[in-house]
Amino acid sequence: MDRRGFLPFSIGSRNCVGQALALVELKAVLALLLGTFSFSLHPSMGGFEGVDASAKQTVTLRPEHGLLMTLTPRVTPKE
Length: 79
Prior knowledge:
two-stranded antiparallel ribbon
C-alpha cells in the first residue's frame, strides 16, 4: 500500500480539488474558536510532559489517546 494514500488531500498531480477551500474553512473555524474560547490541557493529560510521553508517530506525531482540552469562554469587557 502506498504511504501517500493516508494523507487527507493526497499529493502530486492527483490531489484533492477542494483542498484550498477546505484549508481556508479550517483556518476560519480555528480563528473563530481561538477568539471565543481559551484552551488549556485537561488535568488528566499530565501537562506537557504527559503529552510528550504519550506521543505516537504515525503519518504525523500525535498523542496516543488523543488530546483532552478544557475550553473556557472568553469574557469580553462591557463598555
